[in-house]
What we know:
Pfam family, one: SBP_bac_5
Low-confidence stretches: 1-15, 25-34
Number of helices: 14
Distance between the termini: 29 Å
Domain Solute-binding protein family: 117-484
Protein name: Solute-binding protein family 5 domain-containing protein
Mean pLDDT: 92
InterPro entries: SBP_5, SBP_5_dom
Organism: Glycomyces endophyticus
Oligomer: single chain
Number of strands: 21
Radius of gyration: 24 Å
Amino acid sequence: MRAGRPGIGAVGTAAALVMVAGGTTACGSGEGAGDPGFQHCATDPVTCNSGERADGGEVTWGIDGSWTGWNPNLSAEYTVYTLQITAPYWPWVGQFDQEGDFVLNDGVFAKEPTLLSEHPMQVEYTLNPDATWGDGTGIGIDDFVYNWYARSGSEARCQGCTPAAASAAGVESVEAGAAADKIVVTYGPGYSSSEWKYEPVLSNPAHIAEEQGFDWEHDPAAMAAAEAYFSATVPTWSTGPFKVDDAATGEYAVYTPNDEWAGSTEVTLDKLTVKSFDSVDSIITELRQGTIDGASPNGISAENVATLATAQEIAFDIAPGPGWGHIDLNTQNEFLQDPALRTAVFQAIDLEELISRTYANVQSDAARKLNHLFRNDSAQFTDHLTATGQGAGDMELARSTLEQAGYTWDGDGRLHDPDGERVAFNYRYADGSDDRQTMADLVAFNLGDIGIELELKPFAVADLGPTISSSDFDMVNYGWTSAPVFVSRADQYWASDSASNYGRNADPELDAMLAALASEVDPDKAVEQANAIVARVIEDAYVLPTVDTPVAIMTAEDLVNVRDNWASQQRALYNVAEWGIRAD
């Protein structure tokens, strides 16, 4: 079932953000491929690599990381790897495809959610009457209530819980609808959102929590214990096309078809195995040996691309992925408190050269990202950056900005602020990558041209979270990967009180704009407001986007209906029910 493009982009509007070190992972040469199966993905991303499937077959899929549990409700487990390992059985409302169209999960829902009322906001869900948890138990109102409590962020409902995002914080009640297959979610006074249709309303099964002795509905401590149970326990249930047959947490999961799958897509595979690998190199080696059948890793290097280009037995494609890189400034730094200096710093950075020396080695047509919330090819995209000169490497403009703000240069060309202090600060980035080092060197060179002394200060990749969460940087280069919604993302990125506002920018006008966006019901108006917010963020000059980070999909040539999806953190696994072995 397919709806028209809504102007927004993902399942779960309050999905937690996932951070990455940023940058590609090696230098070298390579470019996107048009291999058999993927040659039409650039022009027809939704249906490329389509074909008739043979009856039966087994597929082994590699992921380039591990997972620590089975419950992506929890902040510690809301990672791309948990989202991928749970993809074959999780009760999603739906997925967004590669063109931004919402595709309902008809294995659980009979039709798209309906807005019954704006004040208060009430949303009606219609269940597929055949939908079950894979154990003969139908999906019902208790399951909606369980998800509400799990994602509420409320100690009164889930004591000590740490949801990845409190997406149900605004819910006031969950009640039976006018018919047995209908559930109505009512939000509290003053709550509204243009992204109401995509809220996650189901997660773990309430009846299994009860069977395990958790009085989750009446005891918030028991509710937390139930969430911990689902984290530690390999699931015996499934609402999706596959169920887990065997698994070892963090290592592998073996899936077989779910006989109770109520979706319209017929499953043809006999078995699907998803295995964890410690590197993309290992995945490519296994692919070449024929021991696995495909992967869509979260990073790709130019050296990887060069290897794939010589492997005749592997089909692959390179394209912008769900992550985007950016350079942030700490607005609490003694010098960078000044918006004029921040603006000049960004105007001096030459992103075209930076991309040509790094990302373009992986994806030959990699382009500057010109909007913080919308991709360059999005219907909602507006270019707010070019006119400001930020990212242009325009030294004359940067110097003019500084001169107008009262900055001066000494005889050695060193920049001094209006109080006569020499301007110097640090630049932080994750160690261990030639490309990230190249970016750092280029930024230092650019800022040196306007007289700024920049200390390059790398940190271990494992220290990314602690470094940015403590704002232990003056400048920092890293990336976000997240579901492509924009209302919740904008608030998480830039609200003054957001824990994810690592640059610590405090802008009351921006906060007011974010609050207005959060309460806007009309999707078209929300897009306009979101673009106005991007313009304000650019005016504040504390986040400079670089590029939508290139990623790859690689498969054996006999796989059909397998393709990448930038709009889903599940990547290629988003449509796993459709996967198959190509019919002769």
